[in-house]
C-alpha cells in the first residue's frame, strides 16, 4: 500500500449534554479526523486527544503539529505491506501515541478494504457482537445520578460505570447500589485520589464493584500495586498503560487485575493487539475504553472489542448518547440486551458522511505524495 495522500481535519461537535469527570466538564469536542488515501482506497480514523492536557499530555493542538511536521513526512509516499509496519516508521517518535494511532488506524481501514474483510476480522476478531457498558459523568446529586442510571439500565447496558472524585463518591455509589442491587457496577476516578486516601478507598469494597479504575496518579504503577494489596475491589489501570511494557510491569507488580485498552492512548491497533495478546496469555481481562469519540473512532473501538480477551463490557455505547447527529451511518445502536452488532462489510463497516464532515470542519490540511 502506497500512502498517496493524508488529510487532517478538525471538526467542532457539540455533545448532547456536558460530560463531567474529576478533571473537568466537556461541552464540545474538537474532533480530529485522519483521511488517508492509499492504492485508490480511503481509510478513516480519529485522533482522540482532548482540547487540554488533562487526560494525558497530548492535546488537539499538539497532535496536529506532530502529524504535520513529524508523522506525515515519515509515511507519505512510502509503501507498506501491512498497517502493522507503521509503528516501525514511527520508531524515532517518543510519545504522541494518539497522533500516531490516527495515522496507523487509517491504514488499517485501507488494508481491510483491500483484503475485502471487516476490520474486526483483519485484526483477529471472531465475535458477531460485543457487550456494552456505559460511563456516566459526575452529577449534581445522588438523586440526579439515580435518574441517569435508571435510563441506562432500562436501555439494556450490561455495565454501569460511575465517575467519582472526593466529595462525590461514597454516598453517590451507595445510592446506586441500594437502588440497583444486581447491576454490574464500576467506578472511575481519573486519578482523583492519592495513596493517603487508602482507608477511604477501602470503603468501596462494600459495594461489590466490578472494578475501580485509575484511582491514583495517571503516570503511576507502583503506588497502585500498594493500593491493590489493601483492596478487595479489583483495580483497573487506564492512563498508566501506554504500551505492552507498562501492562507487563503492572501485572507483574500486582498493580492491576484488569486493563482498559484505549486505541489512542496506546498508540493504535498494533500496540493494542500486543497488550491484548499479553493479557490473554496472563488471563487478565481487557475492555475498550472511550474518549467521547465520534462515529469514526467508535467504529475502530467496535472492531478492537471483537478480539479474544475483551471479556468485559466496554465503553462503546450508542451514538445517540452523545450526538444529535453522528458522522457515520448507520449510527451505532445498542440492542435491548446491551450489545452492538459488529458490521460485516469491508473496512470500518460504516459509511462516513462526508457532507456532514465538510459542514462541521473548521480546519483542514492535505498533503499529497509526488
What can you tell me about this protein's structure?
With 370 residues, the chain is α/β, with parallel strands linked by helices. It folds into 2 domains: 3-116 and 353-363, Enolase-like, N-terminal domain (Enolase-like, domain 1), CATH 3.30.390.10; 121-341, Enolase-like C-terminal domain (TIM Barrel, Alpha-Beta Barrel), CATH 3.20.20.120. The protein is built from 13 helices and 15 strands. The chain has helices at 60-75, 86-89, 97-114, 119-123, 142-154, 170-179, 198-202, 222-230, 244-253, 263-266, 269-282, 295-304, 354-360, and strands at 3-21, 24-38, 41-47, 129-131, 133-136, 159-163, 185-188, 212-213, 235-237, 258-261, 286-288, 328-329, 339-341, 351-352, 361-368. The model has no long low-confidence stretch (mean pLDDT 95).
